[in-house]
């Protein structure tokens, strides 16, 4: 029995191993995989003997990172909001945009009327853009259906994207994203609807986690807590759109329910960040939405550092507030706009992003036992991945041991 | 004799013709070309007869814009500044960065020691990133050699990039970019050097225009005027890095010399903008540098509109202040950060960018007599080109009548 079926050699590794400093760099590295799982990742000098029988890939000194993880997207939706964008720049008022069918409800309408095939093919192009930059794991949320059948269709489309592409897809049920028109003025009834949907969708295997949008313009802390309680009864982990536009105590709420992550967090306070640290809840910061919405308040990165809350970065890819499909650009925005360091940015789209999905036992670092998900880069130093803007230096992408 | 050798039909055109409103839209359009020149671009209904013999390309309803024009780049240089970027984010002081060889002089050093081949191959990847988004014309500046032989080498590399790729390259001599170390403290002597270089490099056919960096940290108005006077003696048009970090009257200076463009312009005042209007000098705004340097003062777009100064957008692709190689993203930044409208952004990378290079008689719109440089897009409406972030919907690129 061979030890490995494929070996990458003459490479420099950013292992992101938590047992190594910084990026966990190995200068003269080797990665060996068998059946899509890493069996060795580390210095050539320490590599086990018996790797010679495997297929050998000469990386000619290139850098390898774990395959990238985009841990917060709304990739599946109908239509787009380019017209609304255009009208707004031309000076149209919010009333006029609403009258012409803008805002999140335009996406809900377009998503509800789209077939599952149409949802898949629309998202396919966006997913390909992410994959072209070395992304091997993507989270996809529902939340534009806002009724059982349409939320189900969105989640099924997400699952299909995972099965039809060389990428791991994690689904998140975000029924509590907005109040649907048929429940206008009655959020209590809609929250009951959402709580009903959770076990049904979970039973179909469509839900890896449950998310909610806790904000003055969305759902209250109490309503969110109801949804989260129901999720926990169904043995589902939760995530939260928290403290993006105001401080409602979302970070603390997420922590109270042991959330995998609290996301956005521009207005989170120290008590909230400390609670996240105690609960092991990751911070997912989303500079694309900050940029696109021209926000002024950055998330409290220093508090996250002080309390050692893991920081992940994600595209938040969505038609309304972040029509962004580049995780490399997201890293640059994390550095430029939020002043994350290079090491923090790279960890934020690998190790910490995997953690924010509860997947760090499977991916997000180059370590034995993990999936062999790799991104191989034509760069001289990892900092180039963060420094460049609108440039893709990916040389090759490996998904579960296979070059794709 | 056939009227045309190639015809694109079933397409929607954003002609950017100055004789049409807005983007100059034609819904059911046809473009016909012969020997790489457009012989007809307009409604199918008005198309000349006799196009049937040509090769016919069915665009299936896609949008066609003129091939994009990136009218301000420093694409040819040695090294990169990723390490400096990393150090700065990690909190290093300017002194420490300077001590470790950061700043523009690190690029000058790396450029001076690079061979012409190395300069070409380094820039080739960046040029390919631009071309992949439909760019068919690129301006490339010198300015990292700062001595005759090295400026000459940079300009030769730029010319080679033009001859080795399906793209039009315009070269700009930017000797007056910074003071080289061997002239430290003696800008008078270096300006004399620059004035000496101009006719020599021009005689070699390496100079399409002359540029200078007029700023407190670079050259004064008087020094810039000397360089411009020399350029005019050599029958060369000028461009200017003007009023980026402070108001030195750069816009007015550019106008005084009938500059093709004044670029950056964050601190330009109304008198300067009015002078540009009177002189027919275009404004080239560079949101990539504004973003990367985290500037707070946006260029006076309203004044440009009021005085009808044409507004172009460009990447400013360079290693120090704008390591950006996406003109699509530049459009989004123009809209998001500078509040340009969708129509302004699209005109800014086609018609107005061609004008800023003195090339509008050759490219930048879809009109008979122009080069057949086309970008064919998989979008439902042109606004999507500006709205999306980090997504490339290019379907095909046509350079002088040939699909590339």
Average pLDDT figure of chain A? 96
- Point out poorly predicted stretches of chain A: none
Shape of chain A: globular
Largest protein-protein interface: A-B, 42 and 42 residues
Quickly give the structural class of chain A: alpha/beta
Helix content of chain A: 25-40%
Q: How large is the count of helical segments of chain A?
A: 15
> What's the quaternary structure here?
homodimer
- Report the C-alpha radius of gyration of chain A, rounded: 21 Å
* First-last Cα distance of chain A: 26 Å
- Which sheet architecture does the biggest sheet of chain A show? 8 strands, mixed
- β-sheet strand percentage of chain A: 15-25%
Number of strands of chain A: 16
Any descriptors?
36% helix; 404 residues; homodimer; eight-stranded mixed beta sheet; alpha/beta
Q: Overview of this structure, please?
A:
- Two copies of one chain form a homodimer.
- Chain A is an alpha/beta fold.
- Chain A has 15 helices and 16 strands.
- The first copy, chain A, has helices spanning 82-89, 94-99, 104-113, 116-131, 148-164, 187-203, 221-233, 250-256, 270-279, 287-292, 301-306, 327-338, 342-348, 351-356, 383-387; strands at 6-14, 25-34, 37-43, 55-58, 63-66, 68-70, 135-141, 168-176, 209-214, 237-242, 261-264, 282-285, 311-313, 374-377, 394-399, 402-403.
- In chain A, strands 1, 2, 3, 4, 5, 14, 15 and 16 form an eight-stranded mixed beta sheet that branches. An eight-stranded parallel beta sheet of chain A has the order 6-7-8-9-10-11-12-13.
- In chain A, helix 9 (270-279) links the parallel strand 11 (261-264) and strand 12.
- In chain A, helix 4 crosses helix 5 (148-164), helix 6 packs parallel to helix 7 and helix 8 runs parallel beside helix 9 (270-279).
- Chain A is globular, with a radius of gyration of 21 Å.
- The model of chain A has no long low-confidence stretch (mean pLDDT 96).
- Chain A binds chain B through residues 80-83, 85-86, 89-90, 125-126, 129, 288, 291-292, 294, 315, 322-326, 328-329, 335-337, 339-342, 379-381, 383-384, 386-392, and chain B through 80-83, 85-86, 89-90, 125-126, 129, 288, 291-292, 294, 315, 322-326, 328-329, 335-337, 339-342, 379-381, 383-384, 386-392.
């Amino acid at each position: 029995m061979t030890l490995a079926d494929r070996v990458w050699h003459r490479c420099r590794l950013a292992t992101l191993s938590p047992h190594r400093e910084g990026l966990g760099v190995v200068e003269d590295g080797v990665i060996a995989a068998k059946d899509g799982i890493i069996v060795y990742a580390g210095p050539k000098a320490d590599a086990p003997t018996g790797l010679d029988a495997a297929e050998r890939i000469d990386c000619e000194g290139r850098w390898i990172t774990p395959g990238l993880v985009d841990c917060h997207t709304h990739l599946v939706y109908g239509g787009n909001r380019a017209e609304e964008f255009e009208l707004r720049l031309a000076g149209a008022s919010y009333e006029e945009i609403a009258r012409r069918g803008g805002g999140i409800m335009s996406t809900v309408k377009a998503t509800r009327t789209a077939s599952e095939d149409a949802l898949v093919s629309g998202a396919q192009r966006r997913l390909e853009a992410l994959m072209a930059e070395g992304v091997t794991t993507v989270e996809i949320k529902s939340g534009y259906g806002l009724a059982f059948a349409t939320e189900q269709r969105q989640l099924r489309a997400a699952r299909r994207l995972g099965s039809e592409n060389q990428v791991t897809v994690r689904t998140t049920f975000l029924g509590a994203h907005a109040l649907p028109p048929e429940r206008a003025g009655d959020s209590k009834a809609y929250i009951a609807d959402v709580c009903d949907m959770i076990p049904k969708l979970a039973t179909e295997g469509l839900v890896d986690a449950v998310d909610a949008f806790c904000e003055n313009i969305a759902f209250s802390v109490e309503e969110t807590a109801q949804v989260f309680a129901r999720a926990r009864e169904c043995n589902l982990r939760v995530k939260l759109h928290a403290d993006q536009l105001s401080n409602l105590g979302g970070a603390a709420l997420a922590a109270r329910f042991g959330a995998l992550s609290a996301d956005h967090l521009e207005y989170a306070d120290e008590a909230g960040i400390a609670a996240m640290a105690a609960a092991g809840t990751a911070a997912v910061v989303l500079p694309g939405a900050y940029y696109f919405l021209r926000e002024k308040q950055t998330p409290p990165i220093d508090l996250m550092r002080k309390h050692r809350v893991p920081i992940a970065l994600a595209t938040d890819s969505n038609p309304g507030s972040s029509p962004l499909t580049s995780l490399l650009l997201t890293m640059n925005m994390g550095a430029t706009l939020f002043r994350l360091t290079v090491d923090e940015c790279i960890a934020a789209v690998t190790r910490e992003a995997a953690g924010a999905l509860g997947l760090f036992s499977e991916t997000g670092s180059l370590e034995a036992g993990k999936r062999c998900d790799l991104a191989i880069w034509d760069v001289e130093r990892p900092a180039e991945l963060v420094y460049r803007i609108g440039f893709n230096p990916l040389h090759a992408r490996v998904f579960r041991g296979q070059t794709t």
